Amino acid sequence: xxxxxxxxxxxxxxxxxxxxxxxxxxxxxxxxxxxxxxxxxxxxxxxxxxxxxxxxxxxxxxxxxxxxxxxxxxxxxxxxxxxxxxxxxxxxxxxxxxxxxxxxxxxxxxxxxxxxxxxxxxxxxxxxxxxxxxxxxxxxxxxxxxxxxxxxxxxxxxxxxxxxxxxxxxxxxxxxxxxxxxxxxxxxxxxxxxxxxxxxxxxxxxxxxxxxxxxx
Length: 216
What we know:
Elements: E1 2-6, E2 12-18, E3 25-29, H1 33-52, E4 56-60, H2 77-91, E5 95-99, E6 111-114, H3 119-136, H4 143-153, E7 155-157, E8 160-162, H5 164-172, E9 181-183, H6 200-214
Parallel strand pairs: 3-4, 3-5, 5-6, 6-9
Antiparallel strand pairs: 1-2, 2-4, 7-8
Organism: Aurantiacibacter flavus
Protein name: Alpha/beta hydrolase
């Protein structure tokens, strides 16, 4: 079901929620940017399967993402982390599930991490994609020059306009040590596909791993 919550900056954001109000509830922090597009179906279907296993979950829109009316260039890594924390409180989440770069926003919760990706690595991939596109268009750019510009002016990367603070934040963002259990459901790495794609078997395997982890 669709519901809403209020982010720390005062914006009303959408969230997808599955499951009842009893038992554990997972805060789902998904992949970012193009990887998020490619894994959105997979993420939501995994949540449906978790609900069938008696586990509730909520997937909040972060400010500036998906249906949010907030401006993406105004967001920072800090504002997203604060939003993840507020969503945890609003929905009463007991655990967290991170996918790819969502692991950079982990609130103080136990839970699970699927293929965690540091923010600096996510930024590097976006910069690489832009330099490759620029080369094909006959206007070569370098990662180093783009990064320096981005830290001052912000950057448009893969169709996403990131503000200067976000670029600076991501350039230094590493994954902090935490107690999240790594998940290895097997199957294709959907974020590497050229188009969004779903894999029902992989979603079921991921839901099974989470359900098993919560009952130990």
